[in-house]
């Protein structure tokens, strides 16, 4: 198969921050002399107290620890706001586009600074202080960025919970983080429909006695219940607080935020990021990967409830003094031209979105795109899941008119920011490859036993040294942090991803190799969906695996064994889908539920997921060895049942 290579054009190269030689030089320096490299690069942010120690990191059990710039002090909101006021106070920081295309707002750096100071004072008046946890359960409205920054201003730890999560998921995160204050809105909006955020909070809080105050932003004006003594309207409190608030000097290793993410086992983990390293990482990656130039308009379509929304909607852009677009809506409302309409409306220069959105739009044909000029676009980005070459080509040719390089950025909630990606002026592109490591990143490919594989090869992706943006711990469970990431391959960070490296040294992420599935770029632990299913009274056992899905990348395929006496019919299927939506949220809805009289298990009782995955994929010709199963006939009945379903 001949491989497609899209070389860097000379016009892109000459305008870019770095070319191929520049990348090579900086990359080599970052590996040879990390101390020197990061001592210099960390100065792209402002320090209240400069650091003297750059790095203390070890992935080995004996002296395990990750810390960067540890004796430095800084404030994140001051870096994202105050330091820009003199030069670009009147420049737009956030361009907000509502779900309803007639609603929008442009917020300058000066205006944002004022809002953040007032929000910080509101939080203080509710008893929030340094180290307090504040849960933000908000729609994609400016208040989300305002309250994230307000927390950082006073040293509180924010924990953003995606507005699509159920009351139950919200309650779990509030309990685990021990938050005392929740900030929410009356309702969110999504494709013209309303999302009952405050009502969800009310339901969640029945199980969260530790929450003292709920601050409510009026967004839709929909009717909601306010609980006296606990619930406070934003607009009521706003008038009574001062519009200045001094930024709190924070230690570089003080916690900045917690973000929950699914793993292969148990309940979601609270990924903790800290102040200095995270900000340096989000700032430097934003600068180089998006090759950002002052005055440009950057649009990351991710929700602030995910890490992409943290690093590339809020912190990376604002630390760089950029104009960042925040979009409340979805790509297909009011119609399939919405993205391109927004691109033209705000003259977006850089668009950063997910393969699932690209595939969904590609399916609707080129006309929706071509109705709009898109002349402002200069660079396109992709994140969240592998992008299939067909979608890449469509993005490149139709959306970008073959003018705009695509940065396919590989990273994770745990990594804080982009780790493997092309740099627009430096890296020849190959559709489907995240290409090369960013500065300071040392990937290795290992086999199942941990042997390092050299050259062109395929295996599991590990990283052998730390980078400033790395997560520091699992909130409340440091042991779980070590166990999850550093014991599979001792002394190395295990990403959970499979990866191929080609003869040019390019990395191709092949997807998760653990029990995590990636649905529309959102990470779901199969264990979580299984535990939601088995909490239904009629369900005895459940096993969930991923299946190929044209739009979502992966779909959710659930095998369900019912309690004796129950019958699996269409009605129960629908009920179980609703049940999972209610327990976790719509993103966890199973695409297929197959009722199974039994699940394939080894004699020691372990479910053989490999077999279930093959059946879900329809690849029943290569089920492999089933002789070790306790009852091999189980497989035959699963295959027969699947054949009936088609
Ligand atoms: O499997 C990889 C996939 O998404 C996982 C991380 O998910 P999450 O923590 O939710 O963060 C998503 C946004 C950074 C990874 O382990 N992934 C992310 N980006 C890519 C990707 N897979 C292939 N190519 C990518 N560009």
TrEMBL record:
Residues annotated to bind CoA: 308, 332, 520, 581
Residue ranges constituting the AMP-dependent synthetase/ligase domain according to the UniProt record: 82-463
Superkingdom in the source lineage: Bacteria
Membrane-traversing stretches: 134-156
Record EC number: 6.2.1.1
Keyword tags: Acetylation, ATP-binding, Ligase, Magnesium, Membrane, Metal-binding, Nucleotide-binding, Transmembrane, Transmembrane helix
Protein name: Acetyl-coenzyme A synthetase
Organism name: Hankyongella ginsenosidimutans
């Amino acid at each position: 198969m001949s491989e497609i290579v899209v070389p860097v054009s000379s016009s892109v190269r000459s305008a870019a921050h770095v070319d191929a030689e520049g990348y090579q030089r900086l990359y080599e320096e970052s590996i040879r002399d990390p101390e020197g490299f990061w001592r210099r690069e960390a100065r792209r942010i402002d320090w209240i107290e400069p650091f003297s120690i750059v790095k203390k990191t070890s992935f080995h059990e004996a002296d395990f620890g990750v810390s960067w710039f540890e004796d430095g002090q800084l404030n994140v909101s001051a870096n994202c706001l105050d330091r820009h006021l003199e030069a670009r106070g009147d420049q737009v920081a956030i361009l907000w586009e509502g779900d309803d295309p007639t609603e929008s707002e442009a917020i300058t750096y000066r205006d944002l600074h004022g809002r953040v100071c007032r929000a910080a004072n509101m939080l203080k008046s509710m008893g929030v202080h340094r180290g307090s946890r504040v849960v933000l359960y908000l729609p994609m409205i400016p208040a989300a960025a305002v309250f994230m920054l307000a927390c950082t201003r006073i040293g509180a730890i924010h924990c953003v919970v995606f507005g699509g999560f159920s009351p139950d998921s919200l309650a779990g995160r509030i309990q685990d983080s021990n938050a005392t204050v929740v900030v929410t809105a009356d309702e969110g909006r999504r494709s013209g429909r309303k999302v009952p955020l405050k009502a969800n909070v009310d339901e969640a809080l029945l199980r969260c006695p530790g929450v003292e105050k709920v601050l409510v932003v009026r967004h839709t004006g929909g009717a909601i219940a306010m609980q006296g003594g606990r619930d406070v309207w934003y607009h009521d409190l706003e008038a009574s607080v001062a519009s200045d608030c001094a930024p709190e000097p924070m230690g570089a290793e003080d916690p900045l935020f917690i973000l929950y993410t699914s793993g292969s086992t148990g309940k979601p983990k609270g990924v903790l990021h800290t102040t200095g390293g995270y900000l340096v990482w989000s700032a430097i990656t934003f600068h180089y990967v998006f090759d950002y130039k002052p005055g440009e308009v950057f649009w990351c379509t991710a929700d602030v409830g995910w890490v992409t929304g943290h690093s590339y909607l809020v912190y990376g852009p604002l630390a760089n003094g950029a104009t960042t677009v925040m979009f409340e809506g979805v790509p297909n409302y009011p119609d399939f031209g919405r993205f391109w309409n927004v691109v033209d409306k705000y003259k977006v220069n850089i668009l950063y979105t997910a393969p699932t959105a690209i595939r969904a739009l590609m399916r609707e044909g080129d006309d929706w795109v071509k109705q709009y000029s898109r002349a402002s676009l200069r660079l396109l980005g992709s994140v969240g899941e592998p992008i299939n070459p067909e979608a890449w080509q469509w993005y490149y040719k139709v959306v970008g008119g073959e003018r705009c390089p695509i940065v396919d950025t590989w990273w994770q909630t745990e990594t804080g920011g982009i780790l493997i990606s092309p740099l627009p002026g430096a890296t020849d592109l190959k559709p489907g490859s995240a290409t090369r490591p960013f500065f300071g990143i040392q990937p290795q490919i290992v086999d199942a036993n941990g042997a390092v594989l050299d050259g062109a090869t395929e295996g599991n992706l590990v990283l052998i040294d730390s980078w400033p943006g790395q997560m520091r711990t699992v909130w409340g469970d440091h042991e779980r942090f070590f166990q999850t990431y550093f014991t599979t391959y001792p002394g190395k960070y295990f990403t959970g991803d499979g990866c191929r490296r080609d003869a040019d040294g390019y990395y191709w992420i092949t997807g998760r190799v653990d029990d995590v599935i990636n649905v529309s770029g959102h990470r779901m632990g199969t264990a979580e969906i299984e535990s939601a299913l088995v909490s239904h009274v009629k369900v005895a056992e459940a096993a969930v695996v991923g299946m190929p899905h044209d739009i979502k990348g992966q779909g959710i395929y659930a095998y369900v064994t019912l309690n004796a006496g129950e019958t699996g019919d269409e009605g129960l299927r629908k009920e179980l889908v609703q049940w999972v939506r209610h327990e976790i949220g719509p993103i966890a809805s199973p695409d297929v539920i197959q009722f199974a009289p039994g699940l394939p298990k080894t004699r020691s009782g372990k479910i053989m997921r490999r077999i279930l995955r093959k059946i879900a994929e329809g690849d029943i010709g290569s089920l492999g060895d089933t002789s070790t199963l306790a009852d091999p006939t189980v497989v035959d009945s699963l295959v027969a049942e699947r054949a009936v379903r088609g």
